[in-house]
Each structure stands twice: as structure tokens, then as C-alpha cells.
Amino acid sequence: MKISNQRIDEIINFIKGLNLDQESQKEFTNEKIKNILFVNESLTHSSANNEINYENLEFLGDAVLRLIASDFIKNKYPYMQVGERSELRSHLVSDQWLEEVGKKIEIKSVLVIGNKALRDKSAKATIQAEATEALIGALYESLSILEPIKNWLIPFWDEKSKEVLADPHKKNYKSALQELTQSKGLSIPIYKTVEIDKKHDNLKRFFCTVYIKNQSIAEGWGKSMKQAEKDTACKALKYLENNVID
Questions:
Q1: Are 225 and 202 in contact (CB under 8 A)?
Q2: What is the predicted pLDDT for the residue at 92?
Q3: Nearest Cα to Cα of residue 218 among 204, 229, 232, 238
Q4: Of the candidates 238, 230, 241, 221, the residue with the CA atom closest to the CA atom of residue 172
Q5: Listed residue (192, 191, 201, 243) closest to 224, CA to CA
Q6: Which CATH number do you get for residue 203?
Q7: 40 and 87: one domain?
Q8: Which residues are part of the catalytic machinery?
């Protein structure tokens, strides 16, 4: 893949903004063009280049991310049970978390995306998450060690793990609601979701109602069906804390 001097400088400046340790940053210079190419590949969507894009590095990044997230949890929460570790890790490697990291490092400012994908607003969040995961893969290809990548991600994980652990339901509202209804001998929650608006960025694009024993228990909204159901389940849990269903 040919790359301009302007693009090289852009990538070098982007890497500097990640606040990797100084030794790691030395691996991303004009003299280390192979590493620059890895990063450039991780920031290139298939709509811009069908042959060289972030898909392979995303696959690698997924494996690297799961490994170092497991190590982070083991060291940060040594007395946590295996099941609890697995549950927490699912949040620390999720697409939502990757999207949040992508926003914080402003990855969209250096992404190379074709016009068709640029027009698809619904793909915006997914592309940021995938590219962030690919970037992790590119850093590993360049550095060949995990420690600098883990140290870079720890502040993001500290923030997210505190948020998740402070929630009594660990953000898994649908599972928590089903467990609660089963423990009370009630029927399984039934979600009915409808699309209200076609605008992909609308936080109230989907409207959801959850029914238990044929009763409407709670309503919620979201820019995706998944988010609308999650919002509804969260509200249903709060309702059931103070009300009894006949």
C-alpha cells in the first residue's frame, strides 16, 4: 500500500496522542515505516480499499484484547470468581466499550472510509469500534509485546469496570429481569419493539414495551432494537422492586 508523507505524519501524530510509553512511541517513526503501514491498515475501511483494510488486524486485535483484559481483571480483582470475571470481561471487550474508546482517542479523524460507507450513518459506531479493535491488533504487530498495550488501555478499563461493578445488575438488565421473573414464578418477559423513526442517530428510533403475564410493565427507547430492549428491561426491574404483579 502506497502512503503519502502527509499520511505518515498524520499517523505519527495520532500515535503520539495515544500516550503510549516513550519506548513504544519510538517504534512509530519515518524510519519504522512497516509499523506505520500496520496502523494505516487498521484505520482503513474495506469501502476505501477492498484488499488492504482493517479486517485481518481486527481479528488479531480481538484475541489480544481478550487476553490482556483477562490479565487486567485477574490483577485488579484477584478475589473475583471466574464467572464474575467472565461477566466483567464481556463489558471490557464489548463493541460499546470499543466505540467509547474510539471516540475518546478521536479515531474517526484518521479513518479512511469510502463514500458509500460515509453516507451510511448507521455504520458509523460499528466502524469506530472495529477500527479501534484493529488498532489494538496493529499495535501488537508493531510492538510484539502486550504490556504497553495493556498499560494504555488500563485507564479506560478502570473507568468502565467501576461503572459496571457499581450497578447491581452489572448492566445485564435483560438477563436480570428474566432471572427475577423466574424466581417469582412469573412468565418470561416478552419484548415488543417497533421502529418509530428511520434516522439512525435518533436516540428514540425504536420504541419497546415489555410484557409479563400479558401486562405492560415498562416502556423504553433506543437508537437500536437492542438498546431499546435494554432500556425497557432496566425500567421494568425498577418497577418490580416496588410493585407486585398478580
A1: no
A2: 95
A3: 232
A4: 230
A5: 201
A6: 3.30.160.20
A7: yes
A8: 62, 133
Q: 42-80 burial string, b = 16+ CB within 10 Å, else e?
A: bbbbbbbeeeebbeebbebbbebbeebbbebbeeeeeee
pLDDT in tens, 16-50: 999 899 999 999 999 999 999 999 999 999 999 99
> End-to-end CA distance of the chain, in Å?
66
Element (H, E) at 22: helix 22-25
- Model pLDDT for residues 116-132, shown as the tens digit of each residue: 888 777 788 889 999 99
Which stretch of DSSP H or E encloses residue 86? Answer: helix 82-92
Q: Which residue has the cell 428514540?
A: 204
Give how far Cα 116 sits from Cα of 110, 121, 224, Å.
17, 10, 21
What's this model's pTM, rounded to 2 decimal places? Answer: 0.80
Q: Tell whether 75 and 29 lie within a shared domain.
A: yes
Q: Are residues 63 and 101 in the same domain?
A: yes
25 phi/psi in degrees, rounded to 5: -65, -25
The helix or strand, by DSSP H or E, that contains position 163, with its residue range, turns out to be: helix 147-166
Q: How open is the CA angle 75-61-28, to the nearest 5 degrees? A: 95
Domain boundary among 142, 165, 188: 165
* Cell 423466574 sits on residue: 182
Pairing of strands 215-222, 190-195: unpaired
SS (H, E, C) 51-67: CCCCHHHHHHHHHHHHH
Are residues 176 and 238 in contact, defined by beta-carbon separation less than 8 angstroms? no
DSSP secondary structure letter of residue 189: P
* Structural domain boundaries, residue 131: 5-165
